[in-house]
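In practice, a research group might receive sequence data for several interacting partners and want a quick structural hypothesis before committing to experiments. The following worked case mirrors that situation: the sequences arrive first, and a predicted assembly follows.
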Amino acid sequence: MATIVKMPKLGTTMTEGTIIKWLKSEGDPVKKGEIYVEIQTDKVNIEDEAETSGVLRKIIAKEGETVKVGDPIAIIAEEDEELPDLENVDNISTQSQEKSPPVSQQQEDKTEAVKQTISDKIKASPAAKRVARENQIDLSNVIPSGPNGRIVEKDVLSYIQEHKVKATPVAKKIAIERQVDLKAIQKSPGQRITKQDLEDQIIQDVDNAVDNTIPVIGMRKIIADSMTYSKKVAPHIYLSLEVDMSKVIDLRERLIPLVQAQHDVKLSYNHILIKAAATALRLNPLINSSFTEEKIILKQHINIGLAVALKDGLIVPVIKDADKKGLAFIAKETEELIQKAKSKKLLPDEYHGGTFTITNLGMFDIESFCAIINQPEAAILAVGKIIKKPVVIDDEITIKPMMNLTLSCDHRVIDGAVGAKFLQNLKQILEEPINMLL
Amino acid sequence: MAEKLYIEALREGLREEMLRDENVFIIGEDVGLYGGAFGVTKGLFQEFGENRIIDTPISEAAIAGAAVGAALCGMRPVAEIMFFDFFTIAMDQLVNQGAKNRYMFGGKAKVPMVIRGPMGCGTGAAAQHSQSFPAVFAHFPGLKVVMPSTPYDVKGLIKSAIRDNNPVVFVEHKLLYWTKGEVPEGDYTVPIGKADVKRDGKDITIVAGSIMVPRALEAAQKLEEDGIDVEVIDIRSLKPLDLHTVVSSVKKTGRVLIVEDDPISYGWGAEVAAGIAGSEAFDYLDAPIKRLAGLDIPIPYNPNLEKHAVPQVPNIIEAVREVLK
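A structural hypothesis for the assembly, expressed as tokens:
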């Protein structure tokens, strides 16, 4: 029995998935439980297991293609089994991760599906079908005028007439010589394609040929959508200050061997920043909140996201309840999450549910920058590089390792003073790290 | 060219063949001095005498049997059955003898005979004298079946039928006898197994036979006033059946209506429809093939009901419109 494999639902928020890689080719045998395809969902890549054994007979969704959850992506069947017509997909057993309904329900659905298929089938006279075939017309685009919704020859002919590409004789001649598809040239209805249109098209084709393109799919699309959304709905204000990192540096030096011994990870400034921010957030609950049209939600948990740059995007794994965890444990957990993120193995739960985000570009020598809030959070902290600077203390110039912090706040929730107070608390904690123990 | 009645053209054909070939003779009930129940053989008894125009007792089996025997012995009999309904009585001789002999004697025997008679309703002759069932004979291998619809065709086809070396069932329609048409003087033949385009058109093909041909032509003329261009094919021979002419026409028009005088079930129209559906014309069909034929009932005596039993001109017009919808 042929199985139509559908795009699985791999997380509660998943609505579509992108095929990253088929690990099997058409004609390869697959075993139940064997990993045979890599799917990119929301922000992660997931290797999907075959739910049935057989031969991967047909790949429906090609690599790079984005498919809605529940839409067919492949057919697994016996080697010489006749493949089902995809129009009749609903009639055949389908692999999906949702729980199967009871048998009686299934049968009802099946009858319904058969009825549906019959009514979905395009009715066209043999003559209409022949003309459509000869002219490579998709009959689903043709409006039927015959009895019982039947497409007749006349309907196809008028469709062809309406969609006929009109061009001047010179344009047609150039099109043939230069192998330009006249259909690709947009022209308002009734207007003929001229020589000028054709020359413009040729130039455009040449331009397109030079530039490489990257399809906006998967993670790229999610980043584009969510950043645009945040900037659209949230009026950002930016607060900036410099922190003397002397004591953090000293603390880190001392803690490195201890954390190393305990969890075999190297304590980083980010780990300390997570702990410090969590402590400051506990003192400033409005920063750890979410704006909705009706109410501002003050989050019970302090879940700190850390932006991790990837080769083709970025992802924000979340360290949950960071305020309740010790530095060593935060270090261990953060490093594990970063590793998972880089190999695209994060599970949806590991990058959802953040309440505040830290983004650090210090390693790229960035001194300060303004970040876009990761909705539905209310603020994001942008961290710059620790740089030794001359500072004036007690009217004397001294050299101190300084680090810029820029807080982007959603002004719908956080007023300037509220944001400033948080930032000041954070500065105090970092300059006197002993405060983290409070 | 002279205009003649169908019955005159048929008689002329018979007479010319009798003059041409002394082996041709006519046998039947009241075909002699009386000239036949409908007058087809009127005057022939006086011209050819009782040896070539033979009156028989009322026994269609005897008429058919005598004709088969005479044909086997080298004569060319033309047997008249007074009403087509009684072909059923002649059937055993015709089907089990006439149709089989040539095959059973390995081609050494031939059965050059014609058996003819008038079918059809419209004269108030009730259920036993009004039937049309020519398709029944087309079912039997060894028989040829023709049913000319015009004076020209009836003369040409009776000559071909008489000259054919196989038994030919020659079907006339009572109402056609008194229709007129141009008929050339002298000898000509119309080939058996060849349909005829009686009217050129491009919107729809009507395939009709016998009495339905003039009705289809009348319908076509009325439809022309509405700008509907109907092609009318006279099937003329049921066996052999000329599908080629039909298929070419349907490829041109894409729509087809088949009009028969017989009861619809298992009629010859079904054979034509199946032929079209299975041919290269299939890809040119723009509407389902439609059949219009007699009802599945014995022909009623009541003249109003009788009219409704078989297709009339308004029914054909309506059916054409339906196919063109």
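Before designing any experiment, note the following. Chain B touches chain A through eight residues (CB under 8 Å). The longest helix of chain B spans residues 6-20.
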